[in-house]
Each structure stands twice: as C-alpha cells, then as structure tokens.
C-alpha cells in the first residue's frame, strides 16, 4: 500500500510538470515576438512601435490609426510600447526588441556615423518646431543677451538642434540639463529654456505669462529648417518588409487626416491614454497642441510622411559643420521609400 502511494504521488508530480510546461509554451507563443524576429498574428503582421515620448496629442495620428482600425485595414497589428530615450531606442531596434522607433532626424543621421543602423520610412514632422524662450524681465531682448545666461536644455537627443545653433552662432551659455518640465524656467532657476512651439510654449502662456513678456528665438525662422521626428527601422527590416513599412506610413497618414478632421473625438482618445498612463492631463492644452501641430505634420496633405531631399541635405550639412559628422550617406540609402518613389 505504501509503495502504491509513493507511485501515485510521483505520477501526480510528473503530470503537474507536464501541464505547467505546456502552459508556459502556449503562453510564450501568444506573447511578444522574440528579439530579432517579426511575426504575423491572427490580427495581421505585428509591428512593435516605440513612440518618442509619453502619451500626448503630438502623436494623435498614430493613436487614431490604431483607434479607427486603419493599421488593421492595411494588414498590420501595431503594438505601441512605452517610450524610451533615442539612444536606447536605437539599441533596442538593433537588438530586435522593436520594429519601428520615433526619433529626431539629426539623432537618426548621427546614429549612422560609422555604418547605416537606421533608415527613415517616413517623417512625422515637416519643420523644426524648436524655440528658445526667455523672459524679457531677465534682461534678455536679443540673441546677444543669451551670452553667459543659463539655458535649460533637454537631456534627450532633441537638444542637438539647439547645441548646433549655439555653436554655429558662437553663443556661450551655461547648460542646465532638464527633463520636460518648465518649472525651473517659471521659478527663475534658468534664464532661457528649450520649448516646442506646440507644447511647452503654450504651457508658459497657461501659467500666466504673456507673449509680450517673452523673447522668443524661433530656430526655424532663423534658418534651421530641419524637421523634427520621423519613423525609423533597421535596413534589414526594411529590406525584408518594405510593403509593411509603406503600409505603416499610409495608415499613419490616414490617422492624421482623421485626427485633424475630428479634433474632439481625437482628444477624447488622447485624454484616455494619458489617464491610463497616470499623466496629468489638460484638455485645453492637448486640443491646442493638436491644432498647432497641424502646420508641422501637414503643411499640405501631400506632404504628410515625406522626407524632402532638401531637408535631408540641410541636416547633413549642419552635422558636418557643427557635429563632426564626416560620412557621405546617400539620401537613397537613408530614405529607401523616397528612392523607390522616384523610380
């Protein structure tokens, strides 16, 4: 009897191990793709997308493409992951943990200094939206007054255009690394601050500052006509999945067109995403961002998602002059979608 019980217990243990192993196997098949692989699910071709920042109306086109099923219509199952800094995003892309990342044009070109690590499949922005903002009460009424002052500059690669501007114009400032808050500027801890025309600038106005209280250096108007963020994949991913890359951009374009045509519905989606992420949400500001960013994303409907050759040349020239970038990187290699359109 004792011997029978031991056999019974051993049998139960073996059975449990087999069941657990089977469950683990089924779970892994239903989870995220393994590094270095792209998979097709029952919902379509899976694309793991990493945004440039936390939930915000500046990504409304992507949100609405997901919300309205535009990606699915093109056979894609887009999974939006948490944002990470540009350098980490590029490393994760190379390691196969991501398929599409959203970073600035200058950062993407610099990542290709030695070899081509990322290629552009489309632009989200068609202009440089960077401002350098100062309070006139601090004695700043011209670019010359920047000299020696404290500049709150972002830690991310979005600061590259600002650094290039300061270097080219021989303006020496005390650089204070900051995140995305404008609090140090409002408190007077920095004299000048980076600001996007569609985001932080409006937060300053909402805080009580008036336009006439501020000296604003608009880098685009000062000749730094290099667009902001775009969508990037590895060269290998593009060569293996060119049609999926094109589908991603077309669905994203459809998302932006819908977002601009249905602002209130779009902001409902943005607010829900911000609440889920436990981010303080200001509906009036998000609506203002959506309205303001339209001139950057869509100067005309035909320009959505396009990387223009002249914008690329401007970026390359600036990096060669101010950032020790020496590689000759052909436009067609960096932007294969554009090369195919000209065939």
Task: Summarize the SSE layout with pairings.
Blueprint: H1 2-29, E1 40-41, E2 44-50, H2 60-67, H3 70-73, E3 76-80, H4 86-95, E4 100-104, H5 105-111, E5 119-123, E6 130-135, E7 150-154, H6 160-168, E8 174-178, H7 183-186, E9 192-196, H8 200-206, E10 214-218, E11 229-233, H9 235-240, H10 242-261, H11 263-276, H12 283-297, H13 309-322, H14 331-334, H15 336-341
Parallel strand pairs: 2-3, 2-4, 7-8, 7-9
Antiparallel strand pairs: 1-2, 4-11, 5-11, 6-9, 6-10
Helix pairs in contact: 2-10, 2-11, 5-13, 11-12
Label this structure with key terms.
2 domains, globular, 45% helix, 11 strands, D-Maltodextrin-Binding Protein, domain 2, 343 residues, 5-stranded mixed β-sheet, 6-stranded mixed β-sheet, disordered N terminus, 15 helices, alpha/beta
Descriptive report:
- The chain is an alpha/beta fold.
- The chain has two domains: 40-127 and 228-341, D-Maltodextrin-Binding Protein, domain 2, CATH 3.40.190; 130-218, D-Maltodextrin-Binding Protein, domain 2, CATH 3.40.190.
- 45% of the residues lie in helices and 16% in strands.
- It contains 15 helices and eleven strands.
- It has helices spanning 2-29, 60-67, 70-73, 86-95, 105-111, 160-168, 183-186, 200-206, 235-240, 242-261, 263-276, 283-297, 309-322, 331-334, 336-341; strands at residues 40-41, 44-50, 76-80, 100-104, 119-123, 130-135, 150-154, 174-178, 192-196, 214-218, 229-233.
- The strands form two sheets. Strands 1, 2, 3, 4, 5 and 11 form a six-stranded mixed β-sheet that branches. Strands 8-7-9-6-10 form a five-stranded mixed β-sheet, with no helix packed on it.
- Helix 5 crosses helix 13 (309-322).
- The longest helix is centred in the first third of the chain and has 28 residues, at 2-29.
- It is globular, with a radius of gyration of 24 Å.
